[in-house]
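Two entries, shown back to back:
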Amino acid sequence: MGRALVCAGANATSIWGDPSRTIKKAVEMLKTRLGSDLVLSRLYQTPAFPAGAGQDFVNAAFTFETDLSAHELLSELHQIESDAGRTREVRWGARTLDLDLIAMDQEIAPDAETWTKWENLPLDEQMRLAPEQLILPHPRVHERSFALVPLCDLAPDWHHPILGKTLTTFRDALSPEDLQSVKPLN
């Protein structure tokens, strides 16, 4: 068994309703499929990333124990996105549902060298390129307020296996403007 950290985001209406409803439905579906102890963070309203890329998002995080591998879990997450009507036409475009596997315990995938390559990718290349393989932990989780704030609701003491810091440390290093842009909805 391993503990998964997942971030959810949506800024377009899905077949299940508005973004908040869509995220809650995705969580219900995952609980049903995996029968897990899934715990959901609060929901937050956040600006689109990158700035000006569209309507505000609803973001959340959840964590649970699973006996699935990271690849098996990612497949389940992609299936739920598809069930919600997600299409992958424009990188960082509007989404009915985005489920990102952030971490599986302390797993590094596929290796530290590949992780470092993607972590150091310039923003213009991030906007064009997507990795062909699963990268764990997510190579930019430590930079993004829309992920860090909800994750800190659930796993504030999780240590990044490469950078060696906690989610709380990363969140607290963000600018006040970044933190203020993440507004609780519930």
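entry 2 starts here
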Amino acid sequence: MMIHSYNFKNRDEYRASFNRLSKLVFGIDFEAWYQKGAWDDRYICHSIVTDDQIIANVSVSKMDLVINGESKRALQIGTVMTHPEHRGKGLSKQLMEYVLETYEDTCDMFFLFANSTVLDFYPKFGFTTLPEHQFYLNISVQPKDELILLDKLDVSKEEHWDSIKQMLFSRRPISKHFGVTNNEGLFQFYALNVFHECLYYSRTDDAIIIFEHEGDLLHLYDVISDKQVNIETLVSRITTKQTRKVRFHFTPDQLIDKAYVEPFGKHEDVLFIRPLSNLGKLPAFCIPKLAHA
């Protein structure tokens, strides 16, 4: 067994093995992301290989967090997985230790998101939980019958994909309280695999909006623009007559005084950070949903 500490994305046999394992463990496939050129050098796999098959993996995503207006170099850990036949051998522990040692001098902090089944695992490596919050806005005024200049985006169309990439690389962070920059590859993964039916271009705002309706609840996931978009006005245009409240899947800086805040529910992934010492006092926040590795 050996750890491949380089990014093997361009080696077809290893990438295929990685995809087989990720489909088995998480039900996700990275191949379309690779073929679109969105698997960039900021997403690096560290894997244990035996008999030319990847049997365990811990990936890192390099990005910057904007916290209280200050930019911090961050490294997000994700795609932590072991083949079912090789669990219980300490392979994830070995990879975690390797990754933390390899990158600890290159960033200000590590962070990750964990589900309820592995909450006891990460504190062993010096990670501490940091509670996130949900932001909601009640909709009391019914939307006006005005023309909404929204174009549905289709990631399979080259001109739409190129436009998405162009806007991504010049975007402003969605929040200065707790935002993310340099995470274009992750956004493109979500655009291809998760939110491809929720992508719109607003000609009115010159912004890409990612949103969907769930009954009387509007989920607003992200707003991509190189300008500051008036979020409250934007929301008023994309609500329907059925909409009663909006959930922001990021920290809505402009609406902090109007939104109401609730702790994350038990079904939500838990944020772990190492170290906490350089964060200072934090108000309620939500890391953008489309920045989760």
